[in-house]
Specification:
With 428 residues, the protein is mainly alpha-helical. It contains 18 helices and 6 strands. The structure holds acetyl coenzyme *A (ACO).
Length: 428
């Protein structure tokens, strides 16, 4: 039975269809609103706008629920490998043993990047931020694979592009790091797993044996899974909007990487550590920093706190906080920054300002502490996030393409000057 919501404006009442999701979310479909009433909706920052139907990720911000394709994030983080989760997101179901082996096999055959890419890296200044390099290099991949640009690409072309991206992102990420610190590139070793290979390319050297620490590998696997998708967030919405113009997948993912870089989104993991270090250097007076965050005339925000959707707790942050304790203990690392983080969390959680606004630690609050313990430098934190988020971006792009979503093109309420005559400058 069809359901409708009524909207009355200017003595006219119109009926708008109501859409229900599989988890009881309810939406009013306003796609015909302007034609019926002349009205558009205004929702700055899309705080209340459903941009699409999606069957990939469900999250309930009030209850702190996050599921990929119906599977609870807690279970996936505990039991799955990142390869399984990335397959699940992209193909919709968990892989069988055979399909997982086919997928892994295909990925390892695409881990190398074209040697000419090296000349692009060498043109970046030493110390260039790895996120800037990563976004540029992913976009550059489209020039090496012109088939990805064709608007009548086949399903096989799309699958090949997807596998290439999943395979090459760790290679490019580690190359960005090596360039940033001035060390030689390490080529992938295809007998290693996805996460092992990344650790090898990051921390290995071409001439030396490299031993992978299983604690580090398992923590990395968990972190990548926790970041793998998060429905219509800023970078994913960017990937979908760019892709909706039928731009190729490399360019769409490159745009997503750029969107992720900002400190209000994925860049928060770097900003959190920088903030905690600043607090430590400043003598550790937490109350002073809490007051700064509450002061509306001060632009400082408590990085790693607050979330557009989670208003009670971020389930990923709970898993990561526990993982941070476990990893630091297993690696025998004593990080005073972790103590400051825990104290800051306690002080903020009792403060009326944070409680009233539902501001809790988000996924980025503790992830940087684990990355530090794993030996990953601060400027690489957001790159780590991008590695994790890649399958989610791809799954969302694929869904958008398969559903034939129309080009993303919001409207606006114009508030500038009305028409006025051009006045020539005297003596021009
Ligand atoms: N510190 C201090 N005050 C904050 C913070 C914070 N971290 N976050 C939100 N607030 C306040 C705002 O000033 C606002 O107060 P007001 O109602 O008095 O004006 C209120 O809480 C609501 O905040 P908004 O900015 O309107 O919420 P929005 O949903 O637009 O923003 C965001 C969410 C961007 C995550 C915000 O909480 C923030 O800037 N957090 C810090 C950056 C961060 O950790 N980002 C990572 C998010 S997780 C991710 O992207 C992976």
């Amino acid at each position: 039975m069809s359901e409708f919501a009524q909207l009355t404006f200017d003595e006219n009442t119109i009926q708008l269809p109501v859409v229900r999701g599989s988890e009881k979310e309810i939406a009013v479909d306003i796609s015909k609103l302007r034609g019926q009433s002349g009205l558009i909706t205004l929702d700055r920052g899309f705080k209340n706008t459903g941009a699409t139907h999606s069957a990939i990720t469900f999250l309930d911000g009030e209850k702190g629920i996050l599921r990929y394709r119906g599977y609870a994030i807690e279970e996936l983080a505990e039991k799955a490998s990142f390869a399984e989760v990335s397959y699940l997101l992209i193909y919709g179901e968990l892989p069988t043993v055979d399909r997982l082996s086919w997928y892994n096999n295909s990925i390892v055959h695409h881990t190398l990047v074209h040697e000419n890419m090296k000349s692009f890296f060498s043109a970046f200044p030493l110390g260039a931020h790895p996120m800037g390099m990563l976004s540029a290099m992913v976009s550059t991949l489209s020039t090496f694979y012109p088939g990805s640009q064709s608007s009548n690409r086949s399903m096989e072309d799309i699958e090949l592009t997807i596998h290439r991206l999943i395979a090459k992102l760790p290679t490019l990420a580690s190359q960005a790091y090596k360039h940033n610190v001035g060390l030689p590139t390490v080529y992938p070793q295809n007998e290693l797993s996805y996460t092992e290979n990344f650790l090898y390319m990051m921390f290995g050297l071409p001439t030396e044996e490299f031993e992978i620490n299983p604690v580090v590998d398992s923590a990395l696997n968990k972190l990548l899974i926790l970041h793998a998708d998060h429905e219509q967030n800023c970078s994913t919405a960017t990937v979908r909007v760019v892709g909706s113009s039928q731009a190729n997948l490399y360019s769409s993912i490159s745009a997503g990487i750029s969107a992720l870089w900002g400190p209000l989104h994925g860049g928060a993991n770097q900003a959190v550590i920088e903030m905690l270090e600043q607090i430590k250097l400043d003598g550790g007076d937490l109350q002073k920093w809490i007051e700064k965050a509450k002061d509306k005339s001060d632009s400082f925000r408590l990085m790693g706190f607050g979330h557009r959707v989670y208003k009670n707790f971020d389930p990923r942050a709970r898993i990561i906080k526990k993982a941070a304790d476990d990893v630091l203990e297993a690696l025998g690392v004593d990080d005073p920054i972790l103590d400051i983080a825990k104290e800051l969390e306690q002080v903020a959680l009792k403060d009326e300002y944070f409680v009233e606004r539902g501001l809790y630690p988000n996924v980025d609050f503790y992830s940087g502490i684990i990355y530090r313990a794993l030996g990953i430098p601060t400027e690489m934190f957001t790159v780590m996030f991008a590695l994790g988020r890649l399958p989610g971006w791809i799954a969302q792009w694929k869904e958008m393409t398969e559903n034939n979503d129309p080009i993303g093109r919001p409207r606006q309420v114009y508030t500038g000057p009305t028409e006025r005559p051009f006045v020539e400058i005297d003596g021009r």
